[in-house]
Amino acid sequence: MPSSHRYSFTSSTASNPLSLRGMVTSPHYLASQAGRDILRKGGTAVDAAIAAAAVLSVVYPHMCGLGGDNFWLIYDAATQNLRALNGSGRAAQAATPALYAERGHTAVPTRGPLAALTVPGAVSGWGAAFDHSKKIMASPLNWAELLAPAQEHASHGFAVSHSLGNGLALVSSGKPNYSLHQSEDFRSLYFTPEGHPPGFGAVMRQPQLAETLARLAANGPQEFYEGHTARAIISALHRQGGLLTHKDLVSHTADWTEPLRVDYRGYTACTPPPNCQGLATLEILNILNQMDVDILGEGTADYYHVMAEATREAFIDRQHYLTDPDFAHIPTQRLLSPEHGQQQAARIHMDKRADALPPLPPGGDTIWLGAVDAAGNAVSLIQSIYHEFGSGVVADNAGFVLQNRGCAFALDPKHVNCLLPGKRTLHTLTPAMLLRDGQPHLVYGSMGGDGQPQTIAAMTTRIVDFGMSPQDAINAPRWLLGRSWGEESNDLKLEGRIPESVAQELTRRGHVVRRMDDFAELMGHAGAILRRPNGVWQGAADPRGDGQAAAL
User: Fold this and answer.
1) CA distance 154 to 451
2) For L-glutamate, which residues are the binding ones (predicted)?
């Protein structure tokens, strides 16, 4: 495999933690450390992932929380079995296109109670995963131990990181869709007593969230759907005209599924199946698997052009097919076949961009984390409330906001992802894992909405085709094909470290190029844990976030 690349930074040596006993990587150091401490107590990779996810719900509330969803890939070393877990919520039984039309909406609102139309599934995902850890992996820990670090940070406080500070400033900026500071409930959770968004280094305490976590720790995950917390959610929504009911919450379950798989250079790339957009992720890799990516030269105009065009092809299929498979047939076997990948690859012309895509959904904030343990168990977990602080609706005196994932639904009855009662919407969340000989080789993923499949493809090609270390693959400049708030077209965003000559050549080929900062948070917070041939785990975290790969 070629090992050279074209950037001015030197290969990272300070940020390559190694371990035989286990590791957790996440976009916030406190979460990574909480997961590592659970491993030190004898917990499994699943236990560590739950603890880290719970801490992220406290210290990264702009990106994830109790009011959101999650998706999992869980590898059980004893059985050498990989399973997917769908912790995403279904639409309220009262949610129909006709109801939104009656209320004067041609699309599901981005913020507010009508955006919070899907059951928060994250806690159900934690619960199902913990049950698996106890019964299948013989975890010695109890449920309350996993939530204790999050409860402590919520109660005693933590220092606001760069990402959270930026998120709070954004939702108090007055920009369209970013005026959450106008809500007294929202300000009381996250702003100073004087009404200002706390900046980097300020201390934030969340006593209401600490009490909610204490209830969950004492009573188990079902408390969220049947107990005091459920009543807090429904009370807030009913008062503001929302649609979810107690019946919607009580009837919710997380579901175990079989991962999707596709070959990539002799490795097996895996993601959860729809309604997860892992289908698009694997389509990109399936297209690239039909091409000689290594001869393009990593970091060249040819490389970025092919990656963007493969993404374009995969997103066309995503827009036609991706939805809840309980409501529509999705031909995953055909879409991931080598024959389909060959047809898609044949449509990529090196001298010009293909026709423009319809505008893609804008934005989306998320966390990805990975965990491995000494037994060889591995977890790839992604968790989100969708846009910054989700719907902005605060559960009554419970300390968290509800997601706005429901705004991904269409209201056109002919659209494959049309809103229907009890339906799961298409989801941008995409955890990934790369297997070699049936065992985890690379546990990886990223936040970033439409950027998730693109970043996963970037890391895959850079590690597999170009021989980069996980940290160097994450550090290297990234791109994003997609739409931002206020934009009508999908442009190709390039980080500033990509040479101007490359940007000009991509423009010549028809791409609408926009230059970004050198390490733009818009590109997502990626992470990875790679297993070296001698069994040593090597971790990486993204300098675009506040993360850490914490080794045991």
Assistant:
1) 30
2) 449
Measured between alpha carbons, how far is 187 from 64 in angstroms, rounded to an integer? 18
Bind-site residues for L-glutamate? 449
pLDDT for position 488: 54
Q: Which two tokens stand for residue 301?
A: 């105009």
* Residue ranges per structural domain of the chain: 25-253+368-408, 257-363+428-551
- Burial class of residue 184, CB neighbours in 10 A (0-12, 13-18, 19+): exposed
**Helix, coil or strand: residue 18:** strand
Is 9 a residue whose pLDDT tops 50? no
Please name the residue that has the structure tokens 């379950």.
Answer: 253
d(C-alpha 39, C-alpha 22), whole Å: 7
Query: Which of 382, 422, 401, 392 is closest to 67 using CA atoms?
Result: 401
pLDDT, tens digit (0-9, with 9 covering 90-100), for 377-433? 999 999 999 999 999 999 999 999 999 999 999 999 999 999 999 999 999 899 999
490 and 357 Cβ atoms separated by less than 8 Å: yes
Residue 449 in this model has a pLDDT that exceeds 90: no
366 is catalytic: yes
Q: What is the pLDDT of residues 281-312, one digit of tens each?
A: 999 999 999 999 999 999 999 999 999 999 99
**Domain 257-363+428-551, CATH:** 3.60.20.40
Which residue ranges are tagged as binding site? Answer: 449
Is 375 exposed, middle or buried (CB count within 10 Å of its CB: 0-12, 13-18, 19+)? middle
- Identify whether the C-beta of residue 137 lies closer than 8 Å to the C-beta of residue 203: no
Per-residue model confidence as pLDDT tens digits over 325-342? 999 999 999 999 999 999
**Separation of alpha carbons 513 and 516, rounded Å:** 10
Ranking 190-204, 353-367, 492-506 by mean pLDDT, the lowest is 353-367
